[in-house]
Amino acid sequence: MAATATTFSNLSLSPKLPTFLLPNTPSTKPRTLKLKITFCLSLKQSNDQTLTTQNAAVDNLRVVFGAGGTGGHIYPAVAIADELKNTKPTTQILFLGSPNSMESTAIPSAGYDFDTVPTTKLHRPLLSPKNIFLPYNLIRSIIHSYSKLRDFEPHIVFGTGGYVSFAIGLAAKLKGAKLVIQEQNAVPGIANWVLSILADAVFVAFDSTIDCFPRGKTKCVVCGNPVRLSLKKQVSKAVARGRFFPSSCEIGELEKAKVLLVLGGSLGANAINIAVLNLYYQMLLENENLFIIWQTGVEAHNEMESLVKNHPHLLLTPFMHSMDTAYAAADLVVSRAGAMTCYEILATGKPSILIPSPNVAEGHQFKNASLMADLAGASVITEDELDSTTLGSAIEEILGDESKMAELSERALKTANSSASVEIAQHILSLVNLSTSKEK
User: Fold this and answer.
1) Residues in a beta bridge with 179
2) Which of 248, 262, 391, 417 has the smallest count of CB within 10 Å of its CB?
3) Which long-range contacts (CB under 8 A, 24 or more apart) does 196-204 make?
4) 399 within 8 A of 331, measured Cβ to Cβ
5) Which value, in Å, is the radius of gyration of the alpha carbons in the chain?
């Protein structure tokens, strides 16, 4: 096992990985998600002496994270940062992001230092007049990022996506720092696709994503998506349901109930909200054992609240602050197909109906949903197909079949890797420690 750890550490120094990481070798045939994750898990079996040596190689590890824009980029970075701090408490971590952004509040709330750099946004199409100042803004962002890196002197820079991470990644290579990136989606965006050429390692969630990168077979490591720490806590279904519907606990309604969780996104998904609005009350009338937890999104909540009828089995909320409790309570999830939401559904073993947003760049959500259908049997409804009839039929088909729900739950759990953050943290330590040893 010590030999395995030593061999893996060569990842950062050569454009070609050792044979045990390459496709078409006995150690990785067939190329499936399961075998890739099995490889990652095997790294955790290193003996205590090896781990002690790795942890001691860099006394004061310094890591910069470039993450921003959405929770799908921010939360994986925080999960990895948490694991690094857990493994090496002396690790110094700095997050760089955009001012007046989601990350500017989320990162300090998570307990990490945060600094800002100007953001460079790529508008579509590429020849849009809005991109006329793109070269200037990108150079300005790279200069600011370089200055922050020079002051902090990180051993490694970690990008999880978003416009801000692109300039930070380029600055990292100009600075001579190690660069790794993590792609949450089934297919990469433009920023991560370009950065992958410069990166020392690329962490991906799914085996099929490897072929989407220009040097995927020599740089990609499949470890899954890091999920927020709270989702790893064991909250019982009974306790979770009691928190959402406390008045129903006394008469034992929740023991035989079916709970539908509808996630309209943090800001709201109008198509989903309208479809649910047109079917929720009839479903509740026809099924006395059905309960609905409905996240409308902040911007849509007031309108939805004014239109829905009060019902003891319906909980309407603008935003879900305790997603771990919501997933634990649910039997079925109706949601958009953002990368992290999809992986959280897998990690919690929930059957799902996914309605991908057509407005996301590169068709990420449709590709995420398609992969979820292949791997975990998720039902996919496009917005063109979505109405109360198609959604209602899909919900009834799953909730009405206990054996199907059990099968879908099992497939989801088998697909997910709940130890992704642990494995990525170990890879980072191996990469930094080997680089430090070579410099000495």
Assistant:
1) 157
2) 248
3) 198/169, 198/170, 198/173, 199/169, 200/11, 200/12, 200/431, 201/11, 201/12, 201/427, 201/431, 203/424, 203/427
4) yes
5) 23
Judge if the upstream peptide bond of residue 76 is cis by omega within 30 degrees of 0: no
Are the CB atoms for 158 and 74 separated by under 8 Å? no
Set out the domains of the chain in order of their start, with CATH numbers.
Answer: 2-227+418-439 (3.40.50.2000), 230-415 (3.40.50.2000)
The mean pLDDT of 55-71, rounded to a whole number, is: 82
- Greatest pairwise CA separation for the chain in angstroms: 72
Percent helix, strand, coil in the chain, to 5, is 55, 15, 35
Q: Encode pLDDT of 75-105 as tens digits.
A: 899 999 999 999 999 999 999 999 988 899 9
Q: Using the structure block, give the residue that is written with the tokens 């930094």.
A: 432
Element holding 37 (H helix, E strand): helix 33-43
CA distances from residue 81 to 90, 171, 356 in whole angstroms, order as listed: 12, 20, 29
Torsion angle (degrees, nearest 10) of CA 330, 331, 336, 337 = 110
